[in-house]
Automatic annotation (TrEMBL):
It comes from the Eukaryota. This is Glycosyltransferase family 8 protein. The keyword Calcium does not apply. InterPro entries: GNT1/Glycosyltrans_8, Nucleotide-diphossugar_trans. The keyword Transferase applies. PANTHER family: GLYCOGENIN SUBFAMILY MEMBER. GO terms for molecular function: transferase activity. Transmembrane segments: none annotated. Keywords: Transferase.
């Protein structure tokens, strides 16, 4: 696959965006130690790669960080200075969601990611977790055959206690990789974990308030999905392959979790990896990329801040 930045679509007025999510349940509460906040630094690396790094930057697509009410103003201001559009959002809770208990407490507020479906000024959005390292531009993903609007399958019904679904939708993603020992690109026979189960750290969507209301209604139906992985399991239920809104598979060359040397050599566009940890593959090459991206990002912004200070 090539990673060409040029986007071809029939609607010339289409507005696209890259979006990532930030909450204090992930970043922590100490607003004075931004240089030690690994998730915040990861978000800054992602923003820098999308907006400024010549090898991976977008050709004019908006880059947005949605932030929950408890994200400090110091973090918001730094992200604005970095060039991101910072969009405050409210938490998402159901009326009867006391049964939702995630595997880890840092995911307590993660249902607020569903607010992205309310951003209807955008026609399509690529949602990215903050722990992403880019190796090639991502703009071409909007041309992926799976990244197009789909009609809901009216011949397949949802349970009667669920609200009406929209006539069309978009949910395109990639399956979870089972581990670092996988083929490139991985497939359901060689490297992917659970057939039909996608990763909510990297997916394409079409904003739609009706589908947002559908998702939030599911929060009040106890045990309709397993809350262990919160929004990921909600979305996998809503877009199950035997349901009326089945998700589509993006090319696995766009993003891989648990990246190994072969993935990099073959040209994977982005890595879903925690830059501050040792890669699961144990690859020194992967770890060196993590370190380099952090230092390049910080050096870029330090130089730019100093120039702006001199200009003022």
């Amino acid at each position: 696959m090539t990673h060409e930045p040029e986007i071809h679509h029939s609607n010339t007025k289409e507005k696209l965006a890259y979006v990532t999510w930030l909450s204090s349940t992930v970043v922590g509460e100490d607003s004075e130690k931004l240089d030690e906040d690994v998730y915040f630094i990861g978000t800054r690396i992602l923003v820098w790669q999308l907006l400024h790094y010549k090898k991976t930057k977008t050709s004019g697509i908006d880059v947005i960080v949605v932030v929950t009410p408890d994200v400090s103003e110091s973090r918001r201001e730094r992200l604005r200075k970095d060039g991101a559009i910072v969009r405050p959002i409210e938490f998402v809770h159901g009326k009867n969601d006391g049964w939702l208990h995630p595997k880890e407490s840092r995911w307590n507020d993660i249902m607020s990611k569903l607010r992205v479906w309310e951003m209807t000024e955008y026609s399509r959005i690529l949602m990215l977790d903050g722990d992403m390292i880019l190796l090639h531009p991502l703009d071409g993903i909007f041309n992926d055959p799976a990244a197009q609007i789909m009609e809901s399958q009216r011949n397949v019904s949802n349970p009667e206690d669920e609200p009406e679904i929209p006539d069309d939708f978009l949910l395109a993603s990639i399956g979870e990789v089972a581990g670092a020992d996988h083929d490139y690109p991985p497939d359901w026979e060689h490297g992917l974990k659970k057939h039909g189960y996608f990763c909510a750290g990297f997916f394409m969507l079409r904003p739609n308030k009706q589908i947002f209301n559908y998702y939030t209604a599911l929060l009040d139906i106890e045990n309709r999905f397993n809350p262990k992985y919160m929004e990921q399991n909600l979305l996998n239920y809503a877009h199950r392959w035997n349901g009326p809104m089945p998700w589509k598979e993006l090319a696995y060359t766009w993003n891989i979790r648990s990246v190994n040397d072969n993935d990099i050599e073959k040209g994977v566009a982005s890595m879903h990896e925690k830059w501050w940890e040792e890669p699961l593959s144990g690859s020194k090459k992967v770890k060196d990329i993590f370190t380099s991206m952090r230092h390049q990002m910080e050096g870029y912004y330090q130089a730019r801040d100093e120039l702006q200070g001199l200009a003022n």
